[in-house]
Structure formats: structure tokens, C-alpha cells
Amino acid sequence: MTDPKIIVALDYPDAAAAQQLVARLDPALCRLKVGKELFTAEGPGFVSSLVDQGYGVFLDLKFHDIPNTVAKACAAASRLGVWMLNVHASGGRAMMNAAREAVEQAAKPPMLIAVTVLTSMNEATLHELGVSSPLQEHVLRLASLTQACGLDGVVCSAQEAPLLRTKLGQDFCLVTPGIRPADASLDDQNRVLTPAAALLQGSSYLVIGRPITKAADPLAALRSITEEIKGL
Ligand SMILES: O=C(O)c1cc(=O)[nH]c(=O)n1[C@@H]1O[C@H](COP(=O)(O)O)[C@@H](O)[C@H]1O
């Protein structure tokens, strides 16, 4: 069983558009991330169809609510047969414990990870929310709490991966967006790393959207990145 390190972000408005891309990819080379836009438009049926096509699916719904509601949502997501799902670490200890307990009871438990600080946020946006610590310190605090609650890992910027890898050990899963091959457009991402650099910094899995989804030949783009990170 292969363990592809690339997770392709399916940021599409509907199943037809997403499926056009999916048909051109290869489940041996990547997993797929379904987020709020596609899930809200198409629901669990499309997620199940991706699973049936042999893809590992990261259901990126970033649950954040009271513990009971998040636990029930995680149980429902687990029943879809997804490979990974996530919650917001800022939902706190009781919420994350409830999420983990719900996932553990699934017939085939998915990996459960937590979002620390979104890559779209900076210190100024944190201060506005009353968080006065430096950004990296806050990321580390949320990631440490996530680990203490027994979750499998976090979503973070690849730039935070070295700190988290050092402090939280080799077995903690670091999922990092903001990845750009050396020759790719930055789009709206600011703090980016190349696929190879992100893995060398300690990332476990790379979330990659437009460099693959907008490529003239998405499978060729996926193969080229796979080649770049071979052996890392
Ligand atoms: O949770 C995410 O996946 C995520 C978290 C974050 O902090 N930053 C971030 O860019 N993402 C997602 O990662 C993907 C990046 O897509 P591209 O910028 O096209 O490679 C998008 O689906 C974003 O929603």
C-alpha cells in the first residue's frame, strides 16, 4: 500500500468540475482534500464516490463547536470511510477529546488532526482576537494541546514545521499547505515553500491546490512533484 505525501485540494464549486480533474489523477500518487465549498454543494455522496474510486480523502471541514456536536460530526464523517478529518484546535481540550473518542469508535478510524493558526492569519489578526503571544508560540501551544489530547497531528504552515517537529517528535503528523514548486505562481499564498523544502523542514503531507489543479496537464504536474520528493 503506497502512502502518497501529496494531498490535492479539490477547491471546486461542484462535483462535475471536481470529477473532471479527479479522472485525470492517480490514487497511487495523491490523496484528495474536500473542503467546505465542495462539501456544502455536493454533500457526502461525492465524498463516498471518491472513496469508491480508490482515493484517500481528507475531509477538511474544520469542525469547531461544543464537544457533543463535534463528536457527532466526527462520527458521521468517519462513517464515510475518509482517510483524514480535522477540527480547530482552538475549540479546546474537551472538544478535541470528544472528537478523538468519537473517531476511535469508528469501524475504520480516520486520522484526526487539528488546525492551529491558519496561514491567512498573522500576528496582527491574532492580537485583534486577544492573543498577545507571538504567532509561533501560539501555534506551538495549540499543537501541544492537540498532541496532549491524543490527536494524530496538525495543519500548520511549513515554516512552523521545524519548531513543531523538534518539540513534538517524529510521530506527530504535520500537514502543510502553502506549497509551490519553484517555477509556480504564488497566487494568493504568501509564505510558501517548495515541496522538497517542506518535507526537509519536517512536513508529513503536502496540501497542494492550484499548481496541480490549474496545470495544463495535472497528472504531469503531479508526477513531476512526486519525482521531486522521491526518497524524502
Ligand atoms: O486547511 C487547509 O487546507 C488550509 C489551511 C491554511 O492555513 N491555509 C491553506 O491554504 N489551506 C488550504 O490549502 C489549499 C491551498 O491551495 P493552493 O494555494 O491552491 O495550493 C486550499 O484548499 C486552502 O484552503
From TrEMBL:
Active-site positions on this chain: D60 (for ompdecase activity), K62 (for ompdecase activity), K62 (proton donor), D65 (for ompdecase activity)
Catalytic activity, EC: 4.1.1.23
Q: Which CDD domains match?
A: OMP_decarboxylase_like (cd04725)
A GO BP term here is: 'de novo' pyrimidine nucleobase biosynthetic process
Q: Does the keyword Lyase apply?
A: yes
Q: What does this protein do?
A: Catalyzes the decarboxylation of orotidine 5'-monophosphate (OMP) to uridine 5'-monophosphate (UMP).
What is the protein named? Orotidine 5'-phosphate decarboxylase
An example molecular function term from Gene Ontology annotations: orotidine-5'-phosphate decarboxylase activity
Instruction: Write out the catalysed reaction.
Output: orotidine 5'-phosphate + H(+) = UMP + CO2
Kindly tell me the pathway this chain contributes to: Pyrimidine metabolism; UMP biosynthesis via de novo pathway; UMP from orotate: step 2/2
Binding residue positions for substrate:
11, 33, 60-69, 119, 180, 189, 209-210
Subunit architecture: Homodimer.
**Known Gene3D superfamilies for this protein?**
Aldolase class I
The UniProt record lists the Orotidine 5'-phosphate decarboxylase domain at: 5-225
Task: Give the protein family.
Answer: Belongs to the OMP decarboxylase family. Type 1 subfamily.
Instruction: Specify the superkingdom.
Output: Bacteria
**Which InterPro entries has this protein been placed in?**
Aldolase_TIM, OMPdecase, OMPdecase_AS, OMPdecase_bac, OMPdeCOase_dom, RibuloseP-bd_barrel
Q: Which organism is it from?
A: Novimethylophilus kurashikiensis
Q: Name one GO cellular component term.
A: cytosol
Keywords, A to Z, come to:
Decarboxylase, Lyase, Pyrimidine biosynthesis
HAMAP family, per the entry: OMPdecase_type1_B
A Pfam family of the record is: OMPdecase
